[in-house]
UniProtKB/TrEMBL annotation:
GO terms for biological process: CTP biosynthetic process; GTP biosynthetic process; UTP biosynthetic process. SMART domains: NDK. ATP binds at residues 12, 60, 88, 94, 105, 115. Residues 4-141 form the Nucleoside diphosphate kinase-like domain. It comes from the Bacteria. Gene3D superfamilies: Nucleoside diphosphate kinase-like domain (3.30.70.141). It comes from Sporomusa malonica. The lineage of its organism: Bacteria, Bacillati, Bacillota, Negativicutes, Selenomonadales. It is found in: Cytoplasm. The gene is ndk. This is Nucleoside diphosphate kinase.
Length: 141
């Protein structure tokens, strides 16, 4: 049985600046996933801190907040059968040096700090993260 899920994808400031949003969205659509909501946002430090709260004690946290608030971010709700795991596989390893060619990070990311894309790591995380960026009426499907 196919489990329909929704997951949050953030196209980070480096993806927006490099004009990769259309290409990345097309990859999800060609895979058969639906775009249920989409918006371009400029994250405040408070929103970024809420999103990445589980990382607040890690050494990379200050740089992460600095980067994610440095420019516009495209927030996307991607929906479809097993969307969380499919999107994560499509994104590739967090470290672009370890990401396989054909994955989003393998094809476009250059450094660990600027790795193009975020995707929720579980259905529970997806629900929490989607609620940070979208109200119920903004998500279709």
């Amino acid at each position: 049985m196919n489990t329909i899920e929704s997951t949050l994808v953030l196209l980070k400031p480096d993806a927006v600046k490099r004009k990769l949003c259309g290409e990345i969205i097309s990859r999800f659509e060609r895979r058969g996933l639906d775009i249920s909501a989409l918006k371009l946002v400029r994250l405040t430090r408070d929103v970024a801190a809420k999103h990445y709260e589980e990382h607040q004690d890690k050494p990379f946290y200050p740089a992460l907040l600095e980067f994610i608030t440095s420019g516009p971010v495209m927030a996307i709700v991607v929906t479809g059968p097993h969307a969380v795991s499919i999107v994560r596989k499509m994104m590739g390893a967090t470290n672009p040096a370890e990401a396989q060619p054909g994955t989003i990070r393998g094809d476009y990311a250059t450094t660990m700090d600027n790795n193009i894309v975020h995707g929720s790591d579980s259905v529970v995380s997806a629900k929490r993260e989607i609620a940070i960026y979208f109200t119920v009426g903004e998500v279709y499907g």
